[in-house]
Write a structure and sequence with these properties.
The chain is an alpha+beta fold and about 70 residues long. It has a domain of about 45 residues. About 40% of the residues lie in helices and about 10% in strands. It is built from three helices and two strands. It has a two-stranded antiparallel sheet. The chain is globular.
Length: about 70
Amino acid sequence: MIAVQHGAEFGSLLDAGSVLQQMARDALVEWHGCRVVVTAMGRPFVRAVAAGFDTYPRRGVARHSVLV
């Protein structure tokens, strides 16, 4: 699992769960076992999907370009 290879804590991955569940309801991602797959409709939102896994979010501090 990629998370283990990069030393991610399992608890931090669970934080992404609620965001990803909403994206799944909107058909932007699909769950395939423990894998999250971005659908064709979700491709324009891939940065938002990745942001769900960001373990260092700083609210109100722009570190990169802003998601629209």
